[in-house]
Recover the amino acids of this structure.
């Protein structure tokens, strides 16, 4: 199995398959022709001494500096050297691989002007498992993700560092071990690798994929808590949501009913309140709003994945190149800032349901803090503390990065997206979200063990999966292993997979 790269129809699932499942890629024949034609145009313009940004001129504030013909090749090397200026922990391998496939897809449109061997080498690196070592911090999300992408480009010079077969080598050693020719960099090659927001876009694609699964699991946890609290399920009636018209709310209500199917609560066999608190009653609307935003974010990322994020851009048919700002990360960073906030919002909703499960004044007959020995035992009292701490961290991280522009490069780059800050903090938000939701799952399972009615089909399946990982809390024990196990379980999507296997795939 392989995925053909043609510059037009790369989707988020493709990015996931290549970056995480090591599915191979192949460059389409049409893209090969386009790349070669574009390179021919670049060579013609170089021979004619036509002034072209980043080819025979300096970059940024030095764009008015004209380079001599004999300087063009070395300039690309020094361009990569001075831009490989990141700092901090390495990016996860799947993030770097995703950035590489994103950049290959830009090249596949035949508008970047690099030599074909540059794109083919990136393809070969992906297929043979050579992944450059890339520092996680250093990009401001405009002029492209210059610092991290330069660490990818270093390996094409036989420099830098790269992973191969789970070991870190020098760039040259990794390429030699994988039997990949080192192409070096000639005129335009270096800038064509680094001049786009490809790491931001790649990380955003992976974040969207993970968010889809997390929101699905948030609905399972919500359904479990509803069943345990004997919530009034009237607010899940489709008529309510059709009357307003928001697609996300309609979908969410449908999924919640799907999870609760065949249970006594949905079948109206249990006594309920006339109206429940908002954390139960408005779950479809809240998660639905997040899903509607998710859909918009996916559209933006798909445009970016299949667009030309480059400068300059070569229009072969017109024999011209145009300089602009298609590297600007704002079209992705702005909506992704909001998606991170949406994950925080749904996490807050989860914590509020956890509070109702724990609080005997709100739990509809459940024991205080879900323990049989209240007073001697404290049950899940401290589990809420742990959830709350993570919520606060999520709230801090939910401040938008896209409004934090700091001018750079002698004010040539006087507005930047700070998109990498968005991407990095979003994964931190999601990491906390797995922890919060895992604790709600654990509390809901504990609460259900105190009930004797028939649970919804999806609720019953989820409860069984949880009980394989975490035992009923009969008496107090250290809870940190349970919390960590539940976080890992949530991140693995095992609960989701088992529920969907029985009930069919949820539609977000």
């Amino acid at each position: 199995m392989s995925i053909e790269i043609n510059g037009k129809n790369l989707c988020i699932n493709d990015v996931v398959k290549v970056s995480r499942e090591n599915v191979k890629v192949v460059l389409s024949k049409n893209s090969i022709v386009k790349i070669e034609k574009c390179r021919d145009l670049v060579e013609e313009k170089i021979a004619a001494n036509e002034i072209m940004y980043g080819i025979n001129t300096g970059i940024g504030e030095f764009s008015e500096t004209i380079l001599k013909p004999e300087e063009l090749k070395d300039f690309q090397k020094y361009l990569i050297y001075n831009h490989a200026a990141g700092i901090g922990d390495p990016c996860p391998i799947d993030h770097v691989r995703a950035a590489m496939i994103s950049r290959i897809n830009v090249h596949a449109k035949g508008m970047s002007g690099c030599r074909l061997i540059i794109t083919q080498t990136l393809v070969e690196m992906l297929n043979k498992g050579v992944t450059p070592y890339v520092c996680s911090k250093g990009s401001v999300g405009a002029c492209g993700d210059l610092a991290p992408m330069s660490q990818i480009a270093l390996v094409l010079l036989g420099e830098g560092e790269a992973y191969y077969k789970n070991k870190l080598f020098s760039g040259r050693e990794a390429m030699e071990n994988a039997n990949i020719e080192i192409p070096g960099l000639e005129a335009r090659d270096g800038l064509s690798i680094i001049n786009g927001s490809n790491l931001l876009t790649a990380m955003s694609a992976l974040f969207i994929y993970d968010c889809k699964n997390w929101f699905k699991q948030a609905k399972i946890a919500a359904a479990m808590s509803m069943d345990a609290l004997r919530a009034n399920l009237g607010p899940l009636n489709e008529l309510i949501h059709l009357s307003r018209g928001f697609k996300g709310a309609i979908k969410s209500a449908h999924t919640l009913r799907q999870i609760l199917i065949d249970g006594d609560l949905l079948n109206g066999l249990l006594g309920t309140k006339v109206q429940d608190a908002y954390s139960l009653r408005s779950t479809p609307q809240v998660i639905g709003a997040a899903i509607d935003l998710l859909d918009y974010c996916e559209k933006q990322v798909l445009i970016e994945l299949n667009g030309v994020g480059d400068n300059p851009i070569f229009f072969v048919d017109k024999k011209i190149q145009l300089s602009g700002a298609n590297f600007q990360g704002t079209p992705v960073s702005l909506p992704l800032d909001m998606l991170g906030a949406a994950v925080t919002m749904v996490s807050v909703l989860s914590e509020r349901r956890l509070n109702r499960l724990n609080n005997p004044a709100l739990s509809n007959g459940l024991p205080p803090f879900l323990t049989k020995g209240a007073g001697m035992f404290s049950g899940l009292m401290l589990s809420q503390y742990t959830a709350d701490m993570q919520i606060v961290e999520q709230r801090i991280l939910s401040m938008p990065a896209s409004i934090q522009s700091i001018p750079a490069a002698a004010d040539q780059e006087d507005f930047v997206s700070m998109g990498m800050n968005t991407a990095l903090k979003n994964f931190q938000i999601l990491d906390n979200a797995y922890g919060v939701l895992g604790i709600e799952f654990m509390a809901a399972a504990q609460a259900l063990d105190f009930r004797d009615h028939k649970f919804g089909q999806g609720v019953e399946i989820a409860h069984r999966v949880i009980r394989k990982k975490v035992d009923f809390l009969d008496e107090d024990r250290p809870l940190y292993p349970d919390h960590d196990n539940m976080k890992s379980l949530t991140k693995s999507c095992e609960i989701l997979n088992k529920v969907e296997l029985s009930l069919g795939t949820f539609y977000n």
In short: The radius of gyration is 26 Å.
